[in-house]
């Protein structure tokens, strides 16, 4: 493996004498999630960001019926009643982060070379504030210098026109992008002639999309918030809801209050699996009254969910022998196919294998199965703990298998409900960001937009990185996000980006991806979601789609951070016109009034008929989903059981399965602080959570320094040094630590053969006390 270290990676823990290094602390957290802890954290944060006046005002306008902007924090749907302050600690932080008073202007870039900035921490970079001017990299001075929008677009246009094939460029989307900009972006790529449209979804829910598509003929969940309100049982798998989808806490607490059962399945018992104080319930807040959010916690080994789910299915089928109601035979016969093969496989899978692969005792699996059998209506909800594995697709299909057994589909209070990540990642896919677009989508697009879209598949995230590394792709456009840090194999990805002829980053804040750049590089600053977007026809709103397929408008109301910012649709149109001077697409006309984009989308996208009217309804509209109506667009026209064998997920002796995850105080690559409140951690990110016995086996105690070495499928190794070990309630053989830092350990070639997703929750590592092993010599 390469040993080129880029300053970009924080492969090593910062040295002890680095400034601002407070002593790490670890004190297990015993309070309810959210509540006053969250309120305190918010006020401290707002004070620090000097947003005490604007912050709360903005928050009142967030996620509100009618006017207001959609919280860019996560994709959890808005409270349907539209009356309460449906907000959360992390949403407030996220919004305030965008509204900071700090600015990164031309003077800043003149004062700091890129080489110097490369030695800054990621947190320091983003803390500098909002970008204000378009900037272009000047190799002579190693600085970014101002460039006019016109010249910036001309540079992009010229470079793209000079490529000998449109496939030499790749167009990344991070899931923030509104639907209208998304539509223009994919239109630009396809009019240029490529489906190279990698997105962050390639790293989060690709597995869910593919599994649901194959099983049910839809790429999305079918349950919505109303269903959550009436379900009898909720199964929550592989999500840290208190930190990453905090508004789910409200649904969990309300479910508990009405007597529904909640089962959490996670190697870690996360804060959402204990108790919560609902932040907008003022009485509960005042009385410190908390509500339990769990009836049962099950801790499988990392990657052990599929075996656990199969065990539940085995118990359901066994139960059906004495209690026919356990199995919904009528549903199975009428709507599904593949049941006999599935039942045979489940019956042939011995309990010993299920226990060994799941790491959960049969008696505990039976408890979960009991909850399932006793509930008339069940929802299964999951996130990255399920998807970022080799067998992510099979596991999501096993969830569907289990739902089908009891007819938990197409009726109120039941169904699959994946928790999406970025606030509009689901909308991005709906509106065309797909490197494997269905032919019917391309046919409609061709007709609505009078273009000849390319028909062959394009590159996803991993394949784009490999192609840049080989020199086959030479232009990278990043529509938001922080690709250099978010993608796997930090060193390899950095090399890949550096080999580009041109890298273009459309961003709101300074980040690592601006410093890991191609021969030519542009930073194009855009409006944030909270800001007023004024175009020729007046104030513009953009639409977004949440986790549960609700599409609604988001209207920014803050004064833009700088008069030089452009909206994302305007930036895309500027690049498109420069690259396609003779294009018949009315790029400029579209940007004058986003209703015009929506009119075209209404013709191009299924389910968007009458888009402009319906999106203005008080809560927007729900995209119709055939699977919800028991119409299955699968090969068989039925819901399909799958019958995949159980994967072997038990690590070899001495090896730990490492899952990389977020702390409470971060938003993907944006780190707010080094604290992780609900896990009891202060002032520390370079850590590894381990089972206490696994620590003793290695002679480790709290905060001992360790080197962590991963071994990839191709045998190559990667290491990080001087991380601190923390004993934690996690099954033996499992370990956890933080992304994006630990992307250093994720090999580029280690992605799922089922979903092409990098195996970010499934890294084989060895852990040794620092300074005692090969880890010292292993390359970065
Ligand atoms: N505040 C905040 N909100 C966010 C984000 C953020 O960074 N900050 N990111 C957004 C994005 S883009 C996304 S995709 C989502 C991510 O939301 P999550 O999926 O919650 O993200 P992670 O922090 O990666 O946490 C994964 C969870 O999976 C568990 N896990 C790990 N391995 C396994 C396993 O094998 N099986 C099971 N059952 N569980 C496992 C971990 O213990 C952890 O609780 O959140 C979104 N919301
Ligand atoms: N090891 C490991 N790696 C992971 C994961 C993991 O669990 N483990 N999770 C993966 C997942 S699920 C995801 S989604 C990716 C996240 O990958 P990305 O989406 O690429 O990363 P973010 O950190 O969300 O991007 C932050 C940047 O977005 C820009 N930005 C913010 N708001 C806007 C806006 O409104 N418009 C524009 N144009 N730019 C804006 C800012 O400049 C900010 O610096 O990371 C993936 N990487
Ligand atoms: Mo994500």
TrEMBL record:
Its cofactor is [4Fe-4S] cluster; Mo-bis(molybdopterin guanine dinucleotide). Residues 130-505 form the Molybdopterin oxidoreductase domain. InterPro entries: Asp_de-COase-like_dom_sf, MopB_CT_YdeP, Mopterin_OxRdtase, Mopterin_OxRdtse_a_bac, Prok_molybdopt-oxidoreductase, YdeP_MopB. Pfam families: Molybdopterin (PF00384). Residues 1-33 are annotated as: Disordered. Keywords: 4Fe-4S, Iron, Iron-sulfur, Metal-binding, Molybdenum, Oxidoreductase. SUPFAM superfamilies: ADC-like, Formate dehydrogenase/DMSO reductase, domains 1-3. It comes from the Bacteria. The keyword Nucleus does not apply. PANTHER family: PROTEIN YDEP, RESPIRATORY NITRATE REDUCTASE. Belongs to the prokaryotic molybdopterin-containing oxidoreductase family. This is FdhF/YdeP family oxidoreductase.
């Amino acid at each position: 493996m390469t040993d080129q270290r880029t300053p970009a990676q924080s492969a090593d823990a910062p040295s002890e004498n680095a400034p601002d290094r407070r002593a790490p602390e670890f004190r297990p957290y015993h309070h309810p999630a959210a509540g006053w802890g969250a309120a305190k954290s918010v006020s401290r944060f707002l004070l620090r960001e000097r947003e005490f006046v604007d912050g709360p005002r903005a928050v009142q306008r967030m996620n509100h019926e009618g006017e207001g902007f959609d919280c860019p924090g996560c994709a959890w749907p808005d409270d349907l009643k539209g009356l309460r302050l449906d907000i959360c600690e992390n949403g407030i932080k996220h919004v305030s982060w965008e509204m900071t008073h700090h600015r990164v202007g031309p003077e800043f870039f003149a004062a700091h070379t890129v080489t110097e900035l490369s030695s800054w921490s990621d947190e320091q970079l983003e803390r500098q504030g909002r970008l204000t001017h378009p900037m272009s990299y000047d190799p002579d001075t190693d600085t970014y210098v101002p460039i006019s929008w016109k010249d910036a677009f001309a540079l992009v246009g010229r470079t793209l026109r000079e490529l000998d094939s449109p496939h030499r460029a790749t167009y990344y989307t991070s899931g923030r992008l509104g639907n209208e900009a998304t539509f223009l972006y994919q239109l630009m790529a396809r009019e240029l002639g490529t489906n190279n449209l990698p997105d962050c979804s390639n790293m989060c829910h690709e597995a869910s999309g593919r599994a649901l598509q194959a099983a049910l003929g839809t790429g999305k969940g079918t349950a919505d918030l109303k269903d959550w309100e009436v379900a009898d049982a909720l199964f929550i798998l592989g999500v840290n809801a208190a930190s990453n989808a905090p508004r789910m806490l409200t649904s969990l607490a309300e479910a508990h209050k009405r007597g529904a059962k909640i089962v959490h399945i996670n190697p870690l018992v996360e804060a959402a699996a204990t108790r919560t104080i609902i932040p907008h319930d003022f009485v509960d807040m005042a009385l410190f009254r908390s509500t339990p959010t769990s009836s049962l916690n099950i801790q499988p080994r990392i990657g052990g969910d599929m075996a656990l789910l199969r065990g539940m299915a085995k118990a359901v089928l066994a139960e059906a022998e004495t209690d026919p109601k356990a199995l919904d035979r009528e549903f199975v016969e009428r709507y599904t196919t593949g049941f006999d093969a599935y039942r045979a496989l489940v019956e042939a899978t011995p309990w010993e294998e299920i226990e060994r692969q799941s790491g959960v005792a049969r008696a505990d699996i039976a408890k979960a199965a009991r909850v399932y059998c006793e509930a008339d209506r069940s929802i299964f909800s999951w996130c990255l703990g399920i998807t970022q594995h080799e067998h992510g697709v099979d596991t999501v299909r096993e969830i569907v298998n289990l739902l089908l057994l009891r007819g938990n589909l197409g009726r109120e209070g039941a169904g699959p409900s994946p928790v999406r990540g970025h606030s509009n990642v689901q909308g991005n896919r709906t509106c065309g960001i797909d490197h494997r677009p269905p032919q019917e989508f391309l046919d409609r697009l061709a007709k609505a937009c009078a273009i000849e879209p390319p028909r062959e598949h394009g590159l996803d995230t991993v394949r784009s990185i490999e192609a840049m590394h080989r020199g086959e792709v030479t232009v990278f456009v990043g529509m938001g996000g922080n690709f250099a840090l978010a993608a796997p194999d930090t060193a390899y990805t950095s090399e890949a980006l550096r080999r580009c002829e041109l890298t273009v980053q459309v961003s709101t804040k300074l980040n690592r991806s601006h410093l890991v750049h191609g021969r030519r590089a542009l930073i194009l600053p855009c409006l944030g979601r909270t800001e007023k977007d004024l175009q020729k026809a007046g104030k513009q709103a953009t639409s977004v789609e949440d986790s549960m397929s609700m599409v609604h408008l988001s209207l920014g109301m803050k004064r833009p951070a700088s008069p030089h910012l452009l909206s994302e649709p305007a930036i895309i149109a500027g690049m498109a016109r420069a690259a396609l001077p003779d294009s018949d697409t009315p790029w400029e006309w579209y940007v004058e009034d986003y209703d015009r984009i929506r009119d075209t989308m209404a013709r191009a996208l299924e389910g968007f008929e009458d888009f402009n009217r319906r999106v203005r309804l008080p809560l927007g509209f729900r995209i119709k989903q055939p699977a919800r109506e028991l119409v299955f667009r699968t090969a068989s026209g039925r819901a399909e059981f799958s019958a995949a064998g159980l994967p072997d997920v038990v690590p070899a002796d001495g090896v730990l399965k490492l899952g990389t995850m977020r702390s409470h105080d971060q938003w993907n690559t944006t780190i707010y602080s080094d604290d992780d409140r609900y896990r009891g951690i202060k002032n520390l990110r370079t850590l590894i959570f381990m089972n206490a016995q696994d620590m003793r086996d290695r002679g480790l105690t709290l905060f001992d320094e360790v080197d962590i070495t991963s071994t990839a499928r191709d045998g190559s190794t990667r290491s990080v040094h001087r991380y601190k070990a923390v004993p934690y309630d996690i099954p033996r053989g499992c370990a956890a630590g933080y992304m994006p830092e630990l992307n250093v350990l994720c090999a580029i070639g280690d992605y799922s053969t089922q979903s092409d997703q990098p195996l970010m929750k499934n890294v084989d590592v060895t852990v040794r006390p620092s300074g005692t092993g090969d880890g010292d010599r292993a390359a970065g």
